[in-house]
Each structure stands twice: as C-alpha cells, then as structure tokens.
Amino acid sequence: MSMYGYARVSSEGQDLEIQVEVLKWAGCEIVRSEKVSGTSKEGRSELQNIMDFVRSGDTLVVTRIDRLARSVKDLQEIV
Predict the structure, then answer these.
(1) In a 3-state reduction of DSSP, which class is residue 6?
(2) With bands split at pLDDT 50, 70 and 90, how would you rate the model's confidence at 7?
(3) Which among 10, 11, 37, 40 is annotated as catalytic?
(4) Sign of the C-alpha dihedral, residues 56, 59, 60, 64?
(5) Calpha distance 55→8 (Å, rounded)
(6) What is the C-alpha to C-alpha distance for residues 79 and 73, in angstroms, rounded to an integer?
(7) Paired strand residues for 34
C-alpha cells in the first residue's frame, strides 16, 4: 500500500509549493502536480496519470477536496 499526492492550482500565477510540501510531510511517496483549471477533468493529465497508477489499497491524498474536484458530480466520477 502506497500514498500518492495530487496538487493543483488553477492558474500559472499561483504556487504549488505549499501543497507539495504538505503532501510530502503527510508521507506521500509520489506527488503529481499541475497548473490547470479544475472545472473539468479535461486537460488534467497529471490527475489522469496518478489515477492510472493508483491501485486498490493505495491512498490518494489532496490538501483540500477542491484541489481534486470542483463539484460533487466531478468528485463522484473521479472516485
């Protein structure tokens, strides 16, 4: 069982550093990050990469739920 982290900011002007540090501090062995809008899963290649890699028993960690999904529908589809 492994822990993986996913960090996302919505625009190029925002900084991922705090999220990445928190995820590493939480014990995530691999952290994927990207600067892309979260309004849909389209264009979120790092999210797709990590979802392809995570296996049953692994844990995916985010610093806030809105970093993963922008709506309950979106979250339901990801889960």
Answers:
(1) strand
(2) very high
(3) 10
(4) positive
(5) 21
(6) 10
(7) 8
Separation of alpha carbons 78 and 8, rounded Å: 15
Q: Which of 66, 63, 64, 73 is nearest to 25 (CA)?
A: 63
Contacts of 52 (CB under 8 A, 6+ apart): none
Question: pLDDT for 25-64, tens place per residue?
Answer: 999 999 999 987 766 666 788 999 999 989 999 999 999 9
pLDDT in the model for residue 14:
85
User: Catalytic site residue 37?
Assistant: no
CA end-to-end distance (rounded Å), the chain: 18
- pLDDT at position 38: 64
* Cα 23 from chain centroid (whole Å): 10
Assign 33 to helix, strand or coil. strand
